[in-house]
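thread: overnight batch results

M.L. [08:02]
morning all. the overnight job finished for the chain we discussed friday. pasting input first so we're all looking at the same thing
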Amino acid sequence: MRRAQRRWARLAAALAGAGRVLVLMHNHPDPDALAGAFILRRLLQERLGLRVDLGYAGLIGRAENRAMVARLRIPLCRAREIDFDRYDAIVLIDTQPGTGNNALPAGRLPRAVFDHHPPQPLSRGVAFCDIRPEYGAVVTLVSEYLRAAGMALDRRMATAIFYAIRSETQNLERQATAADARLFTQVFPLVDNRKLARIERAPLSRAYLVILDRAFRATQVYRRLAITRLPRMPYPDVPAELADLIMRVDGIDHALVMGIYQRQVYLSLRTLGRRLNAGRVLQRIVGLCGRAGGHERMAGGRVDPAELGCVPVEVQRRLAARAREVLGVQGVRGVPLLRRRRAAPGGEG
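M.L. [08:03]
and the structure it wrote out:
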């Protein structure tokens, strides 16, 4: 508790003199980033009297994430609508300067950073940093400041925290720590279960089902590695969503999904077990031709084909070959995830 209070005092000091603050998430915020930003906004407004806006640059494409924003009334601003010069301070959450996945203006450092990914070099120059890669969810470390500042949770905040941890750690099964588990159980009695159900069961469009069909048909399996190459996708969250789903298929230990969005190739990697670190594996796959990072069992990345002088489909082919090499199945012939079965004689098929 004393350590949390010291961190809270240091954060307050770092933001001293600021009247208006922008809390900036990564470009395509997930439930963890959304909840962390939402909690931080309430904290800074109610305890420091600051005016706080929440910003992001990309899309919120996943149905559950859109439902979370709507049901919990999380106020957001798109980066194209933001005048960065109006803010006295910028705070990054679930991202860091120099990662290329946020809208932080070039040459400008944030006043504070909250993240649970490995520290980046530019973060060393930030006045206040709370970066804890061992945590399963960034909202867990942000929530520690609430108690340090003597601030109680309401039902909206508790629901946001609960769903974020549940989503980010797959019900505490993936990369969760004791701190994540404690917070998860502490907020449960306050959760608005009706709102939670409407978030988790958000309506799916028919277009989304078409994406699933194309993805499954495009997936090749190399022993226990599944690789999916989508020619195009409607939003950048698709690879992460599909990778989680493909990992549920019996016999799959590693899932790499790639998709093209606005001529950029987005990647998501999921892996089982502790022998491999997904973040480091994806960095080896991407190499110097893009950006990648993540945790023990999940990672994401992006490659700009224009920088390589080739078309996106060719980049996908190269990345798939590199993935087979890194994961030791370069000589293995791929088989379709969905094999066509012949219809029984006289049957419906």
